[in-house]
């Protein structure tokens, strides 16, 4: 018997091909597009309704957020209580979310209860009534939540960071304050709803085990002409107006940790350098073995976690490093971050590190297309930007072939430490 | 229904194999039957600190994460009061790397003094981030010792205090390793597009040579029955008053567990639950309310907690919670209510089986409780619960003397200024 060799890593292969089930574009009886991902083994369905109804579309802060939140507080045929009861009875999950650009409603249900749950969703989509009484309690609760959230250094840093990056007149830079809750009569939410929550302004993605019946049921509830109407969208183009000052300290005397944000406005997925920057970002702070983690957590022990992320939105994108560090080492951490950025500009990424990151990212992509829910999310990442699946082929190609030299060029072009905004909340 | 094969190596390592041919990814889950409850009362936070150190390098693998990232894999771990669980996902073709690194760190650890120093700091920062620097972050540091007087559940996984972590020495760490990390104290689950034969071969090859360490059976003090209600009042620099009520309940393996879990859903599972509808929506006493159970291996806790609406008196808020509990004890349920919470649980179990890592983790956990096969009878056990069971358990749990209450008051402005350093 050959002795076991524990010193050497067993043989392995780079992920070669990433198989994915693609979304098929069908149409409902009323002509609305429906994106179908037929995948998975469990009798479960997930349906996303995506509206251009994020804060981009609002005149006053919180309009998009509160409209979205109020959708299931009462409809023409069901009270808020009844809606909650029905979803719970069928074991369905119905969630709403509004971000800077989109409002998304998501239904996850056992296939056998699609009819029962979709009946409620239909009423929410078409006939939400925004009752005053419920609105008052929602406001009261949300205000309290807002106050609690704003005692957290992490939230303080996040809000300030968006503000200094984009400026307060940009929809991506405007941050709500407590008083905003008191200046938003429910009628304004209803108007926002009537203006934007319409079939024409909605993309629908359905994922799971899809049968013939599934599509028939969708048509029955969503295929009518009764929610088709033209929408006036906000077509203004805004310019990010970053502050002159690059460094901000939000003092919180009793903080034992400071929250940090270091970053700048860059671009979104549509930019030719986006994929290369994803690789560069991964090296710097995009995975557990990243340089920031290796230095600031695993070598210095300043933090429980640090990472960087390249955020893509419909009309812009930004790069940010995020961490919470011991209050006594905030400034030391920023120094180290600057050193890491400098290193990316001044030295080529060693081949073995680059190989590791390539392999890691390919493995991650395998995960990103595993199962119907993941497939739906991956497809949404294309749909929001009118991209095709070849975007992912390009991503694989970039991950496999980008050179250390090219990464170095990107670092010099985009990640100069002197161009970064720095926000510290704490000490 | 999750099908699986099961075998045990000579050194006592239990192995479970689940085939799922719909995914290119393999989940590799290694559970050690050691948790915060196995710590010495003066050295708490150890199991969790140790989990961090397990990534610091083993005898033949100097950096744990690198070889895994090199093959496109990812891993993490968590520690609870009962178990420590390490998990990996990676492309199927590269599965053997998971066997290589996980078996090596079971074989022997080899981290430096510097690693220990750094991870102590990292855990201290985790302590700050999660418990000290968050509003209401210290609640469990207060509740556990209030509810448990003898049983080691009286401290949380992060530990009683930062100084315990700071004092951890190299010897402590080594002792902990050989006492608890052993093939005869572990369960391995591999799930993905694999065969049992292939896993058997790999398990024999990599884990087979590790010696059995004859891990001692734990003898934990039993928590005596609580005879008197307990109360604790604190004031903190937070925006709103809160209340936390905890009641002793049965263990995860008890026959009453499923009824107890359903009670928590009746009270607080979703927006149609009793506490939410009555106290948040109708009476407007709370901005948020939660009811849930700590389904721990030894007898756990039933928790009800909420944040009060500004201006609401603590006394009234507590009375409203108690009134809802009394209704439940009398069995005043609507016709479909019990059916509703059972449906919900069934749907959640179906959803949890969509993901291969989830399945592997759950199999390991059920095996650690005694038999992985029990995973497939869960739905049946929930379905069997009757209204009578609910009434019986509710009356057992919700008594005054079984309750510990934490009144967590917001300091008024003037007070908080005075106390600032």
Tell me how many strands of chain A there are: 11
Query: Main beta sheet of chain B: strand number and arrangement?
Result: 6 strands, mixed
Strand fraction of chain B: 15-25%
Number of domains of chain B: 2
- Strand share of the residues of chain A? 15-25%
Catalogue the unreliable spans of chain B: 416-421
- Strand order across the largest sheet of chain B: 1-2-6-3-5-4
User: Average pLDDT value of chain B?
Assistant: 94
Give the fraction of residues assigned to helices of chain A: 40-55%
Average residue pLDDT of chain A: 96
Radius of gyration of chain B: 23 Å
Quick synopsis:
Chain A has 14 helices and eleven strands. Chain A has 427 residues and is an alpha+beta fold. In chain A, the strands form two sheets. In chain A, strands 1-2-6-3-5-4 form a six-stranded mixed beta sheet, with helices on both faces. A five-stranded mixed beta sheet of chain A has the order 7-11-8-10-9, with helices on both faces.
